[in-house]
Design brief:
Blueprint: E1 2-3, E2 6-7, H1 9-38, H2 43-72, H3 74-95, H4 112-143, H5 150-180, E3 182-183, E4 189-190, H6 192-212, H7 226-243, H8 265-281, H9 285-291, H10 297-302, E5 308-309, E6 312-313, H11 322-344, H12 351-379, E7 388-395, E8 401-406, E9 410-414, E10 423-426, E11 432-437, E12 440-445, E13 453-461, E14 464-472, E15 483-489, E16 495-499, E17 502-507, E18 516-518, E19 525-530, E20 533-538, E21 547-556, E22 559-568, H13 579-602, H14 609-634, H15 639-662, H16 669-700
Parallel strand pairs: 7-13, 15-21
Antiparallel strand pairs: 1-2, 3-4, 5-6, 7-10, 8-9, 8-11, 11-12, 13-14, 15-18, 16-17, 16-19, 19-20, 21-22
Family: Belongs to the major facilitator superfamily. Proton-dependent oligopeptide transporter (POT/PTR) (TC 2.A.17) family.
Membrane topology: Multi-pass membrane protein
Region (Disordered): 678-701
Length: 701
């Protein structure tokens, strides 16, 4: 059965691919934040495991192709590995339910190792599934067409690529929204089970859709795997060359010609073409090393930024959608506008030049990321090192005050109702404080534990100067753009304070509450009850990732009088500043990725496409492994420096590739095939002549 001149079975395959890509990219979009916030891993471990997973997803296709070609056939491989995949996604969803081990119901899992074990099993199954079916689905789609449907087949591959991007685009928008929801049985948490559950459900849908179409598919019997033949041919050539290494054997034109004792001329000629292309692949992994950091380092970079787009509040993991959105726009634009313009300028923009430009652009994108990181670092607070202490002063009195840090370290003047920033001291040197306010003074001997932040409350009262040190229990900027808020009671009586839905309890005079977490980018209603009189005020709008101390000073009518002291500044660098680096990287992807596969296919015989696809996917896997090695070995403490390092590495590789490309000569595989056919015909004719002469001679006898 056909529809619009396409086999009907194609539609099932395209829908299946859409659901599978939705499932994969949706899960991958929230993965690094799941590691960081749910499993509580630090940035480096989260990045490392993320790239290990991506590398696995690109290594397993080689396994999938072997299973399909040598044993099960494409259809059975797709079905059986999809089942594995669906189970993996389901396990992943279960692993993120915090109520699974949260016995004390405090909202964080009590036994994290159970969750880690489950999610690692889930990820391994997903890597097996997604990788295993990747090479089969597109090839299986290609199998559905007849010989004379070349045009439809080409169109199918572009629709197929579009469905991949549509799936990844939608899921990268939707899953982070699901993740940002609050859900849970006993305590409300970020909704990871939903963010992993929806991809799992879609994978099940993909499987069902694919099986429903089963009757219509053209199923080609497994032909044996060309990869195995090529490997054997290469292996034999090396072994044979080694055996005949002494001088008395004549040299052969190419080392692969040493396989001619066992393998036919055609296979050797084809293997030569493939190796020529694979040799060019050697530098390519460096590109993927940078490209795949969108989902790890760049997403973590976005968590330290301001995601407020007016009416829209953007989640850090949603910034990744910039890439698929731009791809959908850029691919047609580049094909229809940019390439023709370059052609008009009489520039011969060969495939290898395109790939070189792609590498250069990707390294430029990382320079942009590094520049942005430097701007972000300026806004990040500096926390005390091990032997240091930080003290900030809040003057709660009506007179200005001077605080002297003894012995003769520093003297600071603070006006009424004002506060300083944090001052850093070597803990061992700081012995005492001397506070002068009005005409009174007081000395306070202090011993600090070191490595912490403290707030010094100073107030000149009728009975003398009050100087109280508070311990500020904050060692890092609040995650995910949340805000921390605490209160200081600057009234003579006790007050009961609430902000939004959070109760801060009862505060005695001049005491401080603990910090509590609030979602970023909003204002909150603050209520204080003093001697059963209720006073309230709406707070100012808090940004993302800040910490504030709010001082309660009194009540005019029923309006609360408060002053704000900023402990940690909010994220001031806007997420929109990530768009330039995403734009440059997407341009790089368009000229690099799309060209790379086309070029490979044009330079090798048609039956070798599987080998080249395996090689191409292998470059992606190796690229992700490079991230692990570089990030692990460089030990750079500054994130911007790591970005610069990656940019420099890719630039170096780009230059090497340009040199390799310069010496590459393009070939036409069809011509070589035709030559081989010619030679074979001649050989057959020659053999026939010999045979005829032989028979003639025999008949004369």
């Amino acid at each position: 059965p056909s529809c619009f001149g396409y086999p009907l079975s194609i539609f099932f395959i395209v829908i299946n691919e859409f659901c599978e890509r939705f499932s994969y990219y949706g899960m991958r979009a929230v993965l690094v934040l799941y590691f960081k916030y749910f499993l509580q891993w630090d940035d480096n471990l989260s990045t490392a495991i993320y790239h290990t997973f991506v590398a696995l997803c690109y290594l397993t296709p080689i396994l999938g192709a072997l299973i399909a070609d040598s044993w099960l056939g494409k259809f059975k491989t797709i079905v059986s590995l999809s089942v594995v995949y669906t189970i993996g996604q389901a396990i992943m969803a279960v692993s993120s339910i915090n109520d699974l081990t949260d016995r004390n119901r405090d909202g964080s899992p009590d036994n994290v190792s159970v969750h880690i074990a489950l999610s690692m099993i889930g990820l391994i199954l997903i890597a097996l599934g997604t990788g295993g079916i990747k090479p089969c689905v597109s090839a299986f789609g290609g199998d559905q067409f007849e010989e004379d449907q070349e045009k439809q087949r080409t169109r199918f591959f572009s629709i197929f690529y579009l469905s991949i991007n549509a799936g990844s685009l939608l899921s990268t928008i939707i899953t982070p929204i699901l993740r940002a929801q609050e859900c849970g049985i006993h305590s409300k948490q970020r909704c990871y089970p939903l963010a992993f559950g929806v991809p799992a459900a879609l994978m099940a849908v993909a499987l069902v859709v694919f099986v429903i179409g089963s009757r219509m598919y053209k199923k080609v019997q497994p032909q044996g795997n060309i990869m195995i033949q090529v490997s054997k041919c290469i292996g034999f050539a090396i072994k044979n060359r080694f055996r005949h290494r002494s001088k008395e054997f004549p040299k052969r034109e190419h080392w692969l010609d040493w396989a001619s004792e066992k393998y036919d001329k055609r296979l050797i000629a084809q293997t030569k073409m493939v190796l020529k292309v694979l040799f060019l692949y050697i530098p390519l992994p460096m590109f993927w090393a940078l490209f795949d950091q969108q989902g790890s380092r760049w997403t973590l970079q976005a968590t330290t930024m301001d995601g407020n787009f007016g009416a829209l509040k953007i989640q850090p993991d949603q910034m990744q959608t910039v890439n698929p959105i731009l791809i959908v726009i850029m691919v047609p634009v580049v094909d229809a506008v940019v390439y023709p313009l370059i052609k008009k300028c009489k520039i011969n923009f060969t495939p290898l030049r395109k790939i070189t430009v792609g590498m250069f652009l990707a390294s430029l994108a990382f320079v942009a990321a590094a520049l942005l990181q430097v701007q972000i670092d300026k806004t990040l607070p500096v926390f005390p090192a091990v032997g240091q202490s930080q003290i900030k002063i809040i003057n709660l009195g009506t007179d200005s005050a001077t605080v002297q840090f003894e012995p003769q370290l520093q003297s600071v003047n603070v006006t009424s109702m004002e506060s300083t920033g944090y001052l850093t001291f070597e803990t061992s040197q700081l012995e005492s404080l001397n506070v002068i306010s009005g005409n009174k003074n007081t000395t306070k001997v202090i011993e600090l534990p070191g490595g912490n932040r403290h707030t010094l409350e100073v107030k000149n009262t009728a009975t003398g100067i009050v100087a109280q040190l508070l311990f500020d229990n904050v060692t890092s900027k609040p995650e995910e753009g949340n805000n921390l808020i605490r209160f200081i009671n600057n009234l003579p009586d006790t007050v009961n304070v609430t902000a939004g839905d959070t109760s801060f309890g009862t505060l005695t005079s001049l005491s401080a509450s603990n910090y509590n977490l609030f979602p970023g980018g909003g204002k909150h209603n603050i209520t204080a009850i003093r001697n059963s009189v209720v006073c309230s005020v709406t707070s100012e709008v808090f940004g993302f990732g800040s910490a504030y101390t709010i001082v309660i000073n009194g009540c005019t009518g029923d309006t609360l009088d408060v002053t704000y002291s900023e402990d940690i500044p909010p994220n001031t660098v806007h997420m929109a500043w990530q768009i330039p680096q995403y734009f440059i990287l997407t341009c790089a992807e368009v000229v690099f990725s799309v060209t790379g596969l086309e070029f490979s296919y044009s330079q090798a015989p048609s039956n070798m496409k599987a080998v080249l696809q395996a090689g191409w996917l292998l470059t992606v896997a190796v690229g992700n492994i490079i991230v692990l090695i570089v990030a692990g070995a460089s030990k750079l403490s500054e994130q911007w420096a790591e970005y610069v390092l990656f940019a420099a590495l890719l630039l170096a590789v780009c230059i090497i590739f340009a040199v390799m490309a310069y010496f590459y000569t393009y070939i036409d595989p069809n011509e070589i095939e035709a030559q081989l056919d010619e030679e074979e015909k001649k050989q057959v004719k020659k053999d026939q002549d010999v045979y005829e002469k032989q028979t003639e001679a025999d008949s004369r006898m």
